[in-house]
Specification:
With 346 residues, this protein is of the alpha+beta class. Helices cover 37% and strands 28% of the residues. The chain folds into 4 domains: 2-37 and 73-140 and 324-343, Nucleotidyltransferase, domain 5; 38-71, no CATH class; 143-186 and 263-321, ATPase, nucleotide binding domain (Nucleotidyltransferase, domain 5, 2-Layer Sandwich), CATH 3.30.420; 188-260, ATPase, substrate binding domain, subdomain 4 (Actin, Chain A, domain 4, Alpha-Beta Complex), CATH 3.90.640.10. The two termini are 25 Å apart.
Length: 346
């Protein structure tokens, strides 16, 4: 009886608990939360108290006084700070349910393919502690494949490359299962770090993560086609020699140079996965192409560079940023039909 009442009042959720952003899908409503995975805490006498979560906390990054810290509790797709992740999940669940804390929903959470059983259990326990009634785990490339509309339940090979903030997930899917997969801990965050290091090395200029991300979005590219013009952007930071604020002009070619290493690591991971794919499924991938999802799919001409390097057609998903959470949401709505896609860690 109680389970029926709980099921009646609760609105089930799918959560893409990303390193950079957290998206929440509510059954019947679609994506209702899309905020940075950042928590601001105030340290008082050895105790940490949550001050802000999401966009409000991200706005504090690099700008906080000594007793306030802006934390990203997810690193490389896994929980780096359990207590803060739990607080962040609780905030997003309550926000999704208009702060009705008595509601205990069923939750599907997306996880990277390469994490350990201990890390999987940590995600499940964090969600349970944050108020979930039941927790299901689904691997990110599987959710991305469902969200992109790929025929994941059919005997056809589909290849998904999900480039997130902390990890790049490469997977070949067939018959509701992952046949080959590779989780690369190189993605959007490592690209931002590469930009920061390049500018520091070339210009003796210190910039923050938010500035690096802005540069990547504005003028970042993986490849330049003949006839394309080069863009520039103004970058403000602190001169490491004189210690004063300065402004420099950065070109797209310089950013492309800075991104060479993380991009080559991602492409190498894609090639390795293709090499290990069974011939019949590899033939399907050559026919149907590789599907790119995640924020990294939006890096200009990344799809063209992957196609050039692999010789396989590459398609960017229609809505790459929300593909994973939309796929998890679809599986939430058809739990019985897609039950084979969930991970059992009991």
């Amino acid at each position: 009886m109680f389970k029926k009442i709980a099921g009646f009042f609760s609105n089930d959720l799918a959560i893409d608990l990303g390193t950079a952003n957290t998206l929440v899908f509510m059954r019947g409503k679609g994506v209702i939360v899309n905020e940075p995975s950042v928590v601001a805490v105030i340290n008082s006498r050895g105790n940490r108290k949550v001050l802000a979560v999401g966009q409000e906390a991200k706005d504090m990054l690099g700008k906080t006084p000594g007793n306030i810290e802006a934390i990203r509790p997810m690193r490389d797709g896994v929980i780096a700070d359990f207590d803060i992740t739990e607080a962040m999940l609780r905030y997003f669940i309550q926000k999704a349910h208009k702060r009705k804390s008595f509601i205990k929903p069923r939750i599907i959470i997306c996880i990277p393919t390469g994490i350990t059983p201990v890390e999987k259990r940590a995600v499940k326990e964090a969600a349970e502690s944050a108020g979930a009634r039941e927790v299901y785990l689904i691997e990110e490339p599987m959710a991305a494949g469902i969200g992109a509309g790929l025929p994941i339940t059919e005997p056809v090979g589909s290849m998904v490359v999900d480039i997130g903030g902390g990890t790049t997930e490469v997977a070949v899917i067939s018959l509701s299962g992952i046949v080959r997969a590779k989780s690369i801990r190189v993605a959007g965050d490592k690209m931002d770090i590469a930009i920061m290091q390049y500018i520091k090395r070339k210009y003796n200029l210190a910039i923050g993560e938010r500035t690096a991300e802005r540069i990547k979005i504005e003028i970042g590219s993986a490849y330049i086609e003949e006839g394309e013009g080069e863009q520039t952007t103004e970058v403000k930071g602190r001169d490491l020699i004189e210690g004063k604020p300065v402004t420099v002009q950065i070109t797209a070619a310089e950013i492309r140079e800075s991104l060479k290493e993380p991009i080559s690591q991602i492409i190498e991971g894609i090639k390795n996965t293709l090499e290990l794919t069974p011939p019949e499924l590899a033939g399907d991938i050559v026919d149907n192409g590789i599907v790119l999802t995640g924020g990294g799919a939006l890096l200009r001409n990344f799809d063209k560079l992957i196609q050039k390097e692999t010789g396989v057609p590459v398609i960017v998903a229609e809505d790459p940023l929300s593909c994973v959470v939309m796929g998890a949401g679809k599986s939430l709505e058809t739990l019985d039909k897609l039950k084979n896609v969930f991970i059992d860690i009991s």
